[in-house]
Amino acid sequence: MDYKPATKNLASNGASVKTSVSDQRPEVKTGGKDPSFIGSYRGSFSLPFDVSNYQNKPLAEQIAQDLQQELKSLGFQNATGDQPQKLLEVKILSWSFDGMVNGDFSYELLVSVLDKSGSKIYEKTLKGREEIEGSMFSGIKPGVEKNMPDFYNKVIRSIARNNKDALVALN
Asked: 24-28 contacts: CB < 8 A, separation 24 or more?
């Protein structure tokens, strides 16, 4: 997954925002899956094998990095001090793709905006599911490789850029 922010869209007055992304997926918290786990391909006899994120980077770290780029492209300042104007908190509740010939990608994120005093001023659960079409000869892998960048970009943009209520809370 390689994220590139959309063209600049100054949706901010330059507010200082700190981001926090945590991986709350049960399979990661219990140690059953690596933090870089993003989904499963299925091979012979439908046995799953795990797929890791780009460069085996933890998913939460990847989302945090890309979300900072996204916010910057919207005109927000990356908070460097202990007292940012706002905190954008994202909790990854689920994130996975699965399939053999065809499959799907699904995610669930809890997105919150907190003000300077730590009071929650916005909270929403973002969920999505996308079908992935593979082929009988090569399985789901080509479909994942083709579609996952677009799915990922859509998720990152749904946190702020395409989320008017979150943008209002962040300003």
From this structure: 24/91, 24/92, 24/93, 24/110, 25/92, 25/93, 25/94, 25/95
Instruction: Match 């780009």 to its residue by tokens.
Output: 54
Q: What is the pLDDT of residues 52-102, one digit of tens each?
A: 887 889 999 999 999 999 998 898 888 776 666 899 999 999 999 888 777
Per-residue pLDDT, 10: 59
Q: Does domain 16-170 have CATH number 3.40.1010.20?
A: no
**Environment class of 98 (CB within 10 Å of its CB; exposed 0-12, middle 13-18, buried 19+):** middle
User: Which tokens is 134 given?
Assistant: 């593979």
**Residues β-bridged to residue 20:** 89
Give CA 158 to chain center in angstroms.
9
The residue ranges of every structural domain in the chain are 16-170
